[in-house]
Amino acid sequence: MEVEDLDFRYENGYKVFQNINLRAEKSKFTAIVGPSGVGKSTLLRLLGAFLKPEKGRVLLHGKPVLRPTPLISMVHQSIVTFPWMTAEENVALSVKTKNLPKDEVKRISSKALEMVGLQGFNDLYPKEMSGGMRQRVAVARSLAADPKILLMDEPFAHLDELTAEGLRQDIYNILFNEESPLETVIMVSHNLTEVIELSDTVFILNGNPATIVAKVDIDLPRPRSPRDPEFDRVLDTLYSYLTIKGGKKA
Amino acid sequence: MIAQNALSLGSINGIPFFTITLAVLATSFRVLALIFLSIISGWLLAYGAIKSKIFENVFISLIEIFESVPVITFFPVVLIIFVNRIGGELGVELAADFLVFTAVVWNIWMGEYQAFKTVPKEMVEVANNYNYGFLDTMSLVYVPFSIPRIAANLFPSVSDGFFYITVSEVFSVGFTTYATFGIGTEITSLLAESNYYGILATFIIMGIVIVTIVIALRIFSERAVARYTVDTDTPIMRRGKPRIRQTARFSAVTSLNTLGKLARYNRERRPAPDPEEIFSKKPKNSRWNIVAGMVALAILIYILYESALLVLSVSGSEWSYLFSKTPSLLYGLLLDYIRVITITLISLVLALTLGYYFAYRKRAEKIGIPVIQTLSAYPVPAYFPFVFLAIYPFVDSIFGSYTEEALVLFLGFLATFYYVFYGFWMGVKAMPSEYNEIMQNLDMGFFRKMRYVIIPSTFPYLIAGITSTVNSAWGGLEIGEYWPDIAGHKTLQVHQGLMKTIDVATSTGNIALAAWGSFLFAIIVAVYSILFTRKMMDLAKKKYVAEEGIYST
Ligand SMILES: Nc1ncnc2c1ncn2[C@@H]1O[C@H](COP(=O)(O)OP(=O)(O)O)[C@@H](O)[C@H]1O
Ligand SMILES: [Mg+2]
């Protein structure tokens, strides 16, 4: 997936981006980091074609993406489930659009729940689940749509540290196991530790209007530990990119 | 009377502009004054309700019962009582006011009560801390806190008020016609003179006044929300995108931001369980309890006494006549129920389609919503005769012998549609924006979106809307099922129906039958709608709260 010379401005005239270029490679976990309010969520919405760029293009396999599609699936920053549906029905929502027979829908949703570690919780309602479980449901719903690209907007931001750590450890394996047709994951975050723990490539978004100020490849072996000195070195690098450039917004 | 003297004074080309303007203003003034009265009395009653458990229970039960009965069916009886007891023009005027009051008051009272119940306890503690008296506590804490909720209830109340005032200004019982000055009376007399330009002028002047009121209300709501909304009280907007160019310009008046915020206020019909039981433990409140209990008891005794008098005044043979009529009254009620359900379903389908259309088209929405709001405030009974004239031949060519039935249903629809639409619309506006993105993301079609996401998310709002709807559908039937001389000497009437029976009985002076029919109707409708509404509301609150689908810290 690629972004070419993208500019974006909100209806109220506020210019968020100027000349964004980035490329998310196949089978790589890509992260976009930046300070709060810089436009990370906005960038993901542009990648998913929920918003239209003022200038430039978003390309999937070289072709422009013009409207939202199940091929590019979004996991929101606030954890979104439908309270009137059970875990399984929530997941089934994204399978139903394919007009498959009922038991096929059920099979696929159950499997997606299993992938995110929620086997046996099929009949629980979101209200009966913790935040971590709900986020797993949201991820399962995205995965069940069989996307090529998964967009995740600070997927751990609303979880407590312990739950977030558990989900972080699982997520890489969930996303890149052999059965999954997923090509690329693009995650947005302002938490550098989690970014280094998970990503192969990091784009740093900064400035006002924002643009990509750096690209950092991380090839540390997995699983990665924050206690590793190499980890710290990468952290310093990212940190310096985030702080050099001025124009930072609150 | 003023009307006659002024007639010659402000007439141009036979159109009595002066009288018309005066009549429009009189009617508008009546509606606004009665709404104002409802607001003021509601504050006092709501205060009483939070201070005394006994009073609270009586108060809320009464609201729920009266809210579900369209009082217009009682109008003949009410009118007779007012005319007999008070008499003359004042009696007629008060009867009309009473009718409008009962049309607008319940929503407002309920909203104020809910607001008072949900005042954050920190605010109450501050008031107690400084030993505020009644007036200070009210004016500094409770009243400001209730303003946004009152604003949310004003649109429907105004259109309700206009709806009933035009019918209640002129009313015939037996061979006597009672009239009080206002636009309903004015239209009737212009019609009698076949002064069609006069009628056109009336509609234009009325349109100007209504648009002014609607715009004023919108500005008021915007201000109310901006000024009186406590931060923690608007969780929906937490997720809303900031609207930076939000000003008091006209486009802002028609913007929908406020609607989303206001939407929240309509969500809960009854507030969560008592936040503060300590209140009732304070010794001085037992005094409130006793006073309230006495008042409630006094009202009850008075009602029983009046009822007893009424029952005794009816002779034995009359009772057996009424009983013998009962089966056919009940059959008429059944038919009317079928009509109400039909009207509601049609309104529902149309509201969903139109609401969906607007939800994704900003420009259409900007124009469409204010237009619908204005149209809805136009009293249907005032303009329906002209609609009738215009579409009769067309409807006749399609429905044949069911033409009048179809027209009555259409009248009911006009009286009703707005509430379902408004309810649905509020729900759509309150829907988390993430839901929209997910629907787009999954590439869901119209029916899937509706079935899995939009209808469930808007369910609590739809129920609230339908509750009001069912009520106005009855109002529409009351007017339409038997409408003598609707156009020229043509009478609009259905074949059979309880509302028709009541109307006919009224116009032939058979007050006993009209009252008995109204009574049966009231009991059944009240019981039914309280059970039904409660059930649906509980379901909605238990399961279909879209806001709970978003988890964030
Ligand atoms: N709908 C909108 N209209 C105008 N400005 C917006 C809108 N949504 C977000 N913004 C602004 O755009 C900037 C980027 O927002 P966002 O993408 O949510 O940042 P991040 O996710 O990096 O915290 C912020 O300054 C925000 O105030
Ligand atoms: Mg964000």
Quick overview:
The complex is a heterodimer of chains A (250) and B (553). Chain A is α/β, with parallel strands linked by helices and 250 residues long. Chain A is 34% helix and 25% strand.
How is this structure best described in words?
The complex is a heterodimer of chains A (250) and B (553). With 250 residues, chain A is of the alpha/beta class. Chain A has 2 domains: 163 residues, P-loop containing nucleotide triphosphate hydrolases (Rossmann fold); 69 residues, no CATH class. Helix content of chain A is 34%, strand content 25%. In chain A, the strands form 2 sheets. Chain A has a 6-stranded mixed beta sheet with strand order 6-8-9-3-10-11, with helices on both faces. A 4-stranded antiparallel beta sheet of chain A has the order 2-1-4-5, with helices on one face. In chain A, a hairpin with a 5-residue loop joins β1 and β2. In chain A, α2 packs across α3 and α6 packs across α7. Chain B is mainly alpha-helical. Chain B has 3 domains: 262 residues, MetI-like fold, CATH 1.10.3720; 30 residues; 237 residues, Orthogonal Bundle (MetI-like fold). Helix content of chain B is 79%, strand content 4%. Chain B has 22 helices and 7 strands. In chain B, a hairpin with a 2-residue loop joins β3 and β4. In chain B, α3 crosses α22 and α15 runs parallel beside α22. The radius of gyration of chain B is 24 Å and the shape is globular. Chains A and B meet through β6, β7, α2 and α4 of A and α19, α20 and β7 of B. The structure holds adenosine-5'-diphosphate (ADP) and magnesium ion. The site of magnesium ion (MG) has 5 residues of chain A, from α1.
